[in-house]
Task: inverse folding
């Protein structure tokens, strides 16, 4: 599920102690925090003939280390692990290192280097728990890497995030390369997001361009969003999504994604989900979702689950 738009792509994850459990801190400016996202579902996949089963969507644990240098700067490091593939029974899977990077914040700038998401990772308005389709053209491409340099600048009226995944030829992490840019701005309750990526999957392949635009409007009683993205010589993907609160503790989301491949027939997928957050424990929730895909070989899918966050 996508995050609320106009987020601080790095610093919100690093320094918002509301979303993390502080394990240790001292009077010299060092702190260690842990964030967790554990999600277990009872799910029937979209694929025709699929059976109901237990699926682990998230089993993530993120370690956040921070040194406060002065009033204008911090140094941080992030080390996160995901055990979902191992729990889902993939034969060769173990606990996966999903992020490992260090960084520096200085005033409104943030620089981070290492294994991490690209700038375009948070593009779009999609609000599903599980989808059969890619949620955007960027989702259809790679959206993270091992040799990523990411820079973020936050202004009063806009946020800019740029990243590059180094080719690293001749090193242990040799792979493809990518250049990514995400720009976000807001006017009152309207948010505009523009994304661009130029990527090669390996040293020997040509660069592929992907671009996208997204609009998101908060009408107080509900939110409404739409996005469009296109992969060069590939699919065009668009989303429509809306969210509203049925009660203080119950949130309902509706969405549709349309996929227009370069050569094959177009298809669509709709979904709706409901989430209940316990009033006494907002980070504990139960949820259910139903959706249907018109892609050949796929149909109705549904799930119900529990999510623990800290």
Result:
């Amino acid at each position: 599920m996508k995050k609320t738009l106009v987020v601080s792509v790095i610093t919100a994850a690093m320094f918002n102690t509301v979303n993390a459990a502080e394990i240790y801190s001292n009077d010299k400016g060092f702190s260690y925090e842990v964030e967790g996202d554990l999600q277990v579902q009872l799910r029937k996949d979209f694929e025709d003939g699929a059976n109901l089963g237990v699926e682990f969507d998230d089993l993530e644990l993120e370690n956040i280390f921070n040194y406060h240098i002065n009033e204008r700067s911090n140094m941080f490091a992030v080390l996160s692990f995901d055990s979902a593939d191992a729990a889902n029974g993939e034969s060769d899977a173990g606990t996966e290192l999903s992020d490992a990077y260090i960084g520096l914040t200085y005033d409104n700038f943030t620089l981070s280097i290492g294994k991490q998401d690209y700038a375009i990772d948070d593009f779009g308005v999609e609000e599903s728990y599980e989808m059969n389709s890619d949620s955007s053209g960027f989702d259809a491409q790679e959206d993270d890497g091992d040799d990523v340099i990411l820079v973020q600048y936050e202004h009063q009226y806009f946020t800019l995030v740029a990243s590059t995944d180094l080719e690293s030829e001749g090193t242990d992490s040799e792979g493809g390369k990518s250049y990514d840019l995400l720009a976000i701005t807001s006017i009152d309750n309207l948010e505009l997001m523009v994304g661009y990526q130029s990527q090669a999957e390996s040293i020997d392949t040509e660069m592929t361009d992907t671009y996208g635009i997204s609009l998101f409007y908060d009408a107080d009683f509900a939110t409404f969003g739409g996005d469009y993205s296109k992969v060069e010589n590939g699919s065009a993907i668009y989303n429509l999504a809306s969210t509203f609160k049925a009660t203080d503790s119950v949130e309902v989301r509706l969405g549709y994604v349309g996929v227009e491949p370069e050569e094959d027939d177009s298809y669509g997928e709709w979904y709706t989900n409901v989430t209940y957050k316990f009033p006494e424990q907002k980070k504990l929730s139960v949820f259910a979702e139903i959706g249907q895909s018109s892609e050949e070989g796929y149909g109705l899918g549904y799930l119900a689950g529990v999510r623990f966050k800290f």
